[in-house]
Amino acid sequence: MPFLAGLVPVFLLIAVGVACRQLRLLDERSAQGLNRLVASVALPALLLLKVGTAPLEVSFSGKVTAVTSLLTPTIAVLALVLASLLGLPRAQRGALAQASMWGNLAYVAFPIVLAVAGESGLQQAAVTCAILIPLQNLVAVAVLETNRRETRVDGKTVARILVNPIVISALLGLSLAAASWRPWGWLAGTLEVLANFALPGALLALGAQLEPARVPRVWRAAVIATVLKLLVMPLSCLLLLRLLSASSSETLVAVLLLAAPSAVSSYSVAAGRGGDLDVAGACVVLTTAVAVPGYFVWVLLLG
User: b/e string for 164-186 if b means 16 or more Cβ within 10 A?
Assistant: First the structure.
């Protein structure tokens, strides 16, 4: 199966990151430093390059954007309802809800899309994420803030969500694409070098930050988040896009984006917003583990 040649290295790099942490080649502090470097420099360069130079008439899909944007808050609300029915504490509800809809788009989905759909697929994914990334950030903070003892959603909170390198580069890239931007040769070369570091660096950082010991303590919440994130969300996307008669390439890219495991950054955001850290960490670990066979199934299903 040819697609294995693209998928296997993605998960092997995550495993290498785990091994680096176990062998103390990367401790918690250095893993966080690598994560910040990737998130603040390499991934913004990737988004600027892929989104900013994308021909929007080819790479932008209104159907994909509408469906992925609709499912993001819908899954979050569904997760809150299920958590409430189970009687979970408020802090666990918020962490569960954000992990159920906030995907590891740039760190995991981008390498998968590149491996399966090539450069054109990655460009379409990056353009979609120029809208999806800010939206998922906003929804995540909203569900965490509304499930803490003291809710404090204000203009400063929203500004902090939007003023971060990944969100800024995604929105700037979309604006540049609309203006048919073409970077100077030296700038394109620099962005290309940084972009080439983004995906392997992100996967290594992800592996080094996983903590499997968190899962047993909050397994119910982690299982719910895993089912919603890796089954309900991408399956709903598939069905809706088929109802809308989306093309096979649109459907493939959208499903691969929404089948991504919970974002590693959801843990740090939960820490700053009063969310349950055990739930947030367990959701990242379990969804990442289950996403390995999950992606194989989705790729086989979608051809």
Answer: bbbbebbbbbbebbeeeeebeee
Residue holding tokens 């942490």? 21
Closest CA to 285 of 234, 225, 202, 204: 225
Q: Indicate the DSSP class of residue 40.
A: I
- Whole-model pTM: value is 0.80
The secondary structure of 60-105 as a DSSP string is --HHHHHHHHHHHHHHHHHHHHHHHHTT--HHHHHHHHHHHH-B-I
Is residue 99 within 8 A of residue 75, CB to CB? The reply is no
Q: What integer pLDDT is reported at residue 271 of this predicted model?
A: 63
* CA–CA distance, 218 with 287 (Å, rounded to integer): 13
110 CA to centre of own chain = 9
* Helices 43-52, 110-145: crossing angle, 10 deg rounding: 110
φ/ψ of 23, rounded to 5, equals -85, 5
Q: What is the pLDDT of residue 4?
A: 61
Q: Domain holding 234: CATH number?
A: 1.20.1530.20
Domain limits for position 105 = 4-302
> Which parts of the chain register pLDDT below 50?
none
3-state DSSP assignment of residue 55: coil
Q: Is 245 exposed, middle or buried (0-12, 13-18, 19+ CB in 10 A)?
A: exposed
How far is residue 81 from each of residues 20, 93, 123, 136, 169, measured CA to CA in Å?
39, 9, 35, 18, 34
Strands (E), 98-250: none
CA distance 213 to 255: 30
Are the beta carbons of 126 and 191 closer than 8 angstroms?
A: no
